[in-house]
Fold this sequence. Notes:
alpha/beta
Amino acid sequence: MSDFKSLIEGTPLLPILQPQSVEQAVNIAGAVHASGLRSIEVVRRTPVAAAAVTAIREAFPELLVGMGTVLNQEHVQEAVDAGSQFIITPTISEKLLSALSDITIPYLPGTASPSDILLAVEAGLSEVKFFPASLSGGAAMLKNFSAIFPEVSLCPTGGISNSNLHEYSSLPNVFAVGGSWMIPKSCVASGDWQGVTAACALAQQQFTK
Ligand code: 3PG
């Protein structure tokens, strides 16, 4: 049984980082940490992702660092070997769930539909990611899920920003929200780490239950 929700309790915002270099990843993680946020997801879409996870853990031991965009057994192993404290997947399959069930760190499988959620529930899970949230029905879809799956808590990601964060965070069945908007591309391009801290801080103000 995954216990992702308790892992991130008290810090329900997950900034999503796609690192271009290890040094950049550490700088961004430092900026996120300075905002008071306690978790960060590093997506394995660049060759430096695993090294970035390891370096962030070393630099900021009090920050929870996980790997995202995990799709198969090999990726799961890569995440664990890098020192990930949690794993997030964009989608779900029986094979992927089987690979995840072998690990001891919390994980959050991605779902985009009621049938995906049922697959997670059948595997004994009650916490899932909802991705891509805005393209999969948004907050209105999540409201429907609460009637069908009252026991399931979701973490929407994809297409969320400060302008629509409240629509999601205010829902009773949403326990966390993730996204790249907390690490603005413009700040990353210019090395404006204080700008990243400010964006994360603003998101915390906008996250309301
Ligand atoms: C992702 O996996 O890329 C995330 O869900 C981020 O989506 P966003 O860039 O729209 O926040």
